[in-house]
Write a structure and sequence with these properties.
Blueprint: H1 2-6, H2 10-22, E1 26-32, H3 39-46, E2 54-57, E3 93-98, E4 108-109, H4 135-138, E5 148-154, E6 160-167, H5 179-195, E7 206-211, H6 223-230, E8 245-246, E9 254-255, E10 258-262, E11 266-273, E12 299-305
Parallel strand pairs: 6-7
Antiparallel strand pairs: 1-3, 2-3, 4-5, 5-6, 7-10, 8-9, 11-12
C-alpha cells in the first residue's frame, strides 16, 4: 500500500505499464499481497481508471501460520513453516481484476484440501522409506501453496468463463526428500482431479491461469507432470515452447512457468507472451535489462465462443 500510494516504485510502474499495453479484460495477478478490505488491490486497479471495476482476492495459504515445523529443520515460526512460504498472513497471494462482473456466489475454493487427501498424492519420504512429515504436520498441511480457485466471470454475451487460478510452490529449496518438487507436481494434479470430475461436476468453458512454476522441458521440478497436463484432450496450449520467465545468467535461464490454457470449448483467436524484441517501443517498458517488471512476463490469450 505504501509503495502504491507513493507512486515511486519502478517495478510496480513497469507492471502497470505492461498490463495497460496488453489491455486484457481479465487479469490474474500472482504474488500480490492480500489485505482484509482489498485496499491495495483497489488502489492498484484505480491506476487503470475504470477498466477493472470488478476485483477478487481472499486470504491465501502463503504466510498462514501453522505452529508446526513444516520443513523439518528443527525450528518453527519461519516463513517456510506457513502453509505456503510467506513472512506474514496474506504475503504473496492471488488477485483477479475483471472488466466484467464476477459471480462470487458460485466461487469454488480448493485451497483448504490437505495434501494427503488428494487421490494418488505422493508424499515425501526419508532415505529409509519412512514419512518425511510427521502425522501432526500431515494432519494440517494443505496442498495449495497459495490457492486453487474456480472463479466464474459473467461475459457480455451472457456466457461465463471459469477462471482456474493458482500459483504453485517452486520445486526447489528443499532436500533429497524433494518435498517441494512433489508438492508442486501434486498442485498440478489437483487440477487434473478437478477436471476429471473427482471434486465436483466437470467444468466447462474454463481457462487455467497462473504460475505452475514448472517447465515441461527443463529446469527444476518434475517436468513430465507439466508435459502430461498440457497434453490433456480438454485443454488447448496456444503457446507451446515459449518461455515466460528469464532468470539471471547464474540462474536456470529462460523457462516456461506461467500458463493461460483455455478449454477446448473456446476458440483461440490469438496468444502471446509480452517479451518484446530489443530496441522496440514496447521493450522500453521493461528497461534496459528487460527486468523492470520482474523476471516473469505477462502471458495472454484471446478467446471467443467456439462454434457448436
Amino acid at each position: 500500500m505504501r509503495d502504491l500510494l507513493k507512486g515511486e516504485d519502478a517495478q510496480i510502474a513497469a507492471i502497470a505499464s505492461v498490463i495497460a499495453r496488453v489491455d486484457p479484460d481479465i487479469v490474474v495477478l500472482t504474488d500480490f499481497d492480500y489485505d482484509l478490505e482489498g485496499q491495495a488491490l483497489n488502489v492498484f486497479a484505480q491506476g487503470f481508471d475504470d477498466r477493472y471495476p470488478h476485483r477478487f482476492a481472499q486470504l491465501p495459504n502463503t504466510g498462514m501460520a501453522t505452529g508446526q515445523d513444516l520443513d523439518q529443520n528443527g525450528r518453527t515460526g519461519e516463513a517456510r513453516d506457513a502453509q505456503g512460504y510467506g513472512r506474514f498472513a496474506g504475503d504473496g497471494g492471488i488477485a483477479i481484476l475483471s472488466a466484467w462482473p464476477i459471480d462470487v456466489a458460485a466461487f469454488v475454493d480448493h485451497s483448504t484440501l490437505l495434501w494427503r487427501d488428494l487421490g494418488g498424492a505422493t508424499l515425501p519420504q526419508r532415505a529409509d522409506g519412512k514419512p518425511f512429515l510427521p502425522e501432526a504436520v500431515l494432519a494440517i498441511q494443505r496442498l495449495s501453496h497459495s490457492g486453487h480457485w474456480i472463479l466464474p466471470i459473467d461475459l457480455p454475451d451472457g456466457d461465463q468463463v471459469n477462471i482456474l487460478a493458482f500459483a504453485a510452490t517452486p520445486p526447489v529449496f528443499d532436500g533429497p526428500e524433494d518435498r517441494n518438487g512433489l508438492r508442486n507436481r501434486d498442485e498440478l494434479r489437483l487440477w487434473e482431479v478437478v477436471l476429471d470430475g473427482g471434486l465436483g461436476p466437470p467444468i466447462e468453458r474454463f481457462v487455467v491461469a497462473g504460475n505452475a512454476n514448472l517447465d515441461p522441458l527443463g529446469g527444476d521440478g518434475l517436468s513430465d507432470a507439466m508435459a502430461t497436463f498440457l497434453a490433456r484432450p480438454d485443454l488447448q496450449d496456444p503457446l507451446p515452447g515459449l518461455p515466460t520467465a528469464n532468470w539471471a545468467d547464474d540462474g536456470p535461464g529462460d523457462l516456461r512457468v506461467s500458463y493461460v490454457l483455455p478449454s477446448t470449448d473456446w476458440r483461440v483467436v490469438d496468444a502471446g507472451v509480452f517479451w518484446p524484441a530489443p530496441d522496440t517501443v514496447d521493450a522500453a517498458l521493461l528497461g534496459e535489462d528487460g527486468l523492470a517488471a520482474g523476471v516473469h512476463h505477462l502471458v495472454w490469450v484471446d478467446i471467443t465462443r467456439q462454434s457448436r
